[in-house]
Amino acid sequence: MKVLGIETSCDDTSVALYDSDSGVAENLVSSQVDLHDHFGGVVPELASRAHLVNLLPLVDYLLERQKVTLKDLDGVAVTAGPGLIGALLVGLSTGKALAAAADLPLVGIHHIEGHILANALTSDLVLPAVVLVVSGGHTEVVYMPEVGRYELLGGTLDDAAGEAFDKTAKLLGLPYPGGPQIDRMAKKGIPGRFKFPRPLKNDPRIVFSFSGLKTAVRVVVDDLPRPLSDQTVADVSYELQEAIVDSLCHRLFQAARRKHVPAVYLAGGVSANGRLRARVAEEAMRLNLHFRPPEPVYCTDNAAMIAYAGWCHLDAGRRDSLDLDSFPRKPLSSWR
Ligand code: KG4
Ligand code: ZN
Question: Is the pTM higher than 0.85?
Fold first, then answer.
């Protein structure tokens, strides 16, 4: 079965082709980072317009490269939400039009399910598992007994982990998106120069809070001589990353213990973070849990994860009508 995937929930226009016989045939991502960098964050209206300009040419290019036509496909999978509503609408309308034109089944995919299932693109899933979803808009811990069944165990009370990286990076004068920049700078950081809080550390619930970190970094940074030296930025980045990664690891393994699972996974853009991957790998090995991080290209937004999730839905006989709506927010729910 060949499934075309479309992902336009935020600032990346992405299309992919997943073939159930051979895996991901192609995953194309057209980044809008240069467009939004100037504004220090994603401007929703600009994102929608850029998707509109880029999406169809990207689909054409993908089909041409793969030497297939719409008639050779078995379905279209598109991110229906959550995300920026205008951006989502461009992807969803295009997916519907392509499905209608070629008489193909259409499936709308929850963006977070896409991120979770991206783990299956690297190696076969070991289930049941607990998944830490960490992206620009989400920080949650999900129990997955099987593909299509999801139970939310807890999440953030305020900012998402990605937001914490991005907002503090901005305070340090680093370009958008800040996560990869903090990851890069932290490698040169000298431990111990600064100390940042680990909020809710003793809270028995599976909860996160990151909004206080921004204030803590601002208080430290405001007292430092300007311009900030590279070493200072590196040292703040190091301690900030440690604080975020500590909270994330603590809750992931707390949930894994509670659910007695044999495996843990990471999902979403922040799972590209080198320190998070290393810390989870270390702890998983110590506890004898299966863990394999998703390939970096499948951590951040991509259509391969949507095409693969689409295949899971279609293979189980699920499909959507052309009345399908996009949604800016909605918790991930089970469909199996
Ligand atoms: O999943 P994603 O691409 O988009 C959303 O669904 O939000 O995640 C984007 C987030 C951004 O906040 C970005 O800064 C963060 O993922 N990110 C990282 C790294 N790469 C991307 N954060 C920390 N370290 C990284 N290497
Ligand atoms: Zn995402």
Answer: yes
